[in-house]
From TrEMBL:
Species this chain originates from: Ancylostoma ceylanicum
UniProt keyword Transmembrane present: no
Keyword Iron: yes
Gene name linked to the record: Acey_s0074.g814
Protein name listed in UniProt: guanylate cyclase
Alphabetical list of Pfam families matching this protein: Guanylate_cyc, HNOB, HNOBA
Amino acid sequence: MEIGWDELVRSMSPDLKGFLDNLDSLHYFIDHVVYKANLRGPSFRCEENPDGSLTLHYFTGRPGLYPIVRGVLREVARRVFNIDISLTITGRTQRSVQMASGERTEEHVIFLVKTLDQNRESNSDSLTAGPPPSIENFDQTLKMNAAEFCTALPYHIIMDEHCRLLQTGKELANHVPKELLAVGTPIMRIFEVNRPQIPFDFDNICNFINAVFVLQVKTSPTDMRKQREETENSDDTGTGASAAFHHGHHLKLKGQMMLLSNSKNLIYICSPYVTSIPELMQFGMRLTAMPLHDATRDLILLNQQRLTDVEVNLQLEANNEQLEVLAKDLEAEKQKTEMILRDMLPLSIATQLMNGEHIEAREYEQATVMFSDVPNFQSILPHSQPKDIVQMLNDLFHRFDRLVVMHKVYKVETVGDSYMTVGGIPEQLAEHAEMICHVAIGMLWEGRSVLEPVNKKPIQVRIGIHSGPIVAGVVALSMPRYCLFGDTVSVASSIEMSGSPGKIHCSEKAYKFATQTGRFDFTHRGRIFIKGKGEMEIYLLLRSTKKSVWEIVDRERDIEKNTIDGYEELETGMSYAEQQHTIVHPYVNQTSKSCSIS
């Protein structure tokens, strides 16, 4: 009762006798309907004594449990019916019963049940419901002919004390061969007992009169016809052998046994044991085969609705699982899209776009733009395979990307061999020029690690840096790009294009901003002509006195081969690149196309 069965237990009967008489059906419901188990529970049968006490017959296939039964029944009487009872054992026997599954020991214990409440007038007031109410003309015999009875109860069976057939309902002829329905046929020739698991004889049926009986037809009319046909075929061929035949669907009946007034005959009131329309169709039946008063009709219809709901729920679960898979795939695609968006745009701008915010174009008073390229890229192209060119640029730009992320600047874009970077955008930083200068030093170093495809010489990188005002914003919606506009971009590109390989060229503005927050060594190159600006002062960046090369590129120094700050090695590389630039090649005057955004 503590696990939720109390309401069902209290609703079974208003008195203890009715409760005990209906325990068998409750066990059947719990075993076969709730838990779908094929367990064999105990059986209880009560007899009312003249003094109002009860004689309880307890049958079980598990000997020795009767003390537990006595304690449980006392507790049920107290908690459900609010009475105190005593149970005295007046008899206990055991016998061996031969069943189809083997021999089994069956125990029969008889209890005398009395109430202990002295205030009650008699035992019967609390243990039984009392005599039935009087009905006028109840002593008159109500006549009903056999045909009417067989129509009202189309599946009933009446048997004598030897369990031989006396009468059946009219519908059984559709499921049992007619020759087996003759009066006097032993019931065991027609049916096998599924439940309760007892020998099928008159005494055992009376002992288990309160149990739910499930009988199954042994031979259907279809089986009989096939057997007859195969016997005839066997006789025609002269083989004398009987071929195996397929059994049809054998109907199950579920109901209760009742002892008739003469105490010599039993009636089995039952219904087909079917629970769904497909199962009904298997037996060649329709709902009209059951009378309107039979609750089996409602059970089939309700169960069909339940099966439909289950099918719908299964489909919904399948759809939900499919939606979950699609949602996971969508989330994975969303993450990929967000990763691509973060690669294409600054993180803060990408976050705003993913949140559905509108990005306004913005003017920045001061920022630093850097262009870098491979000055002899056009000379390398004619002598190299396309895949080698792509591999070389991938290697070079991968190294540049690492520096950009490490120093927290932003890569605007790459066009051909040109690589554009900006500092101080979109987050404004006072050290924007210092950060770009450190990246430039790292690019010179990393460029030396990438070799040209044909002559296997280190790549020479040319860099131009300029600081000034910039307008920046997101262009396009389907493929958004973060673009820079203004004079500063054009000047930085021109400085890079007019520079020398292996050198970092800085405008005067970039030089001033870099020395304000950082510590660098510059050398004055002189004035060069910049288209649209005229002559401008240009400075060459040599080193940072604040950071070593190893710190800038985040590489470990070989203490046996490298200097402490690494700038001697960087300067050697510059000198080598400058010497290589003076060697005459047939394509020495060709220059690469740089990205120019204005």
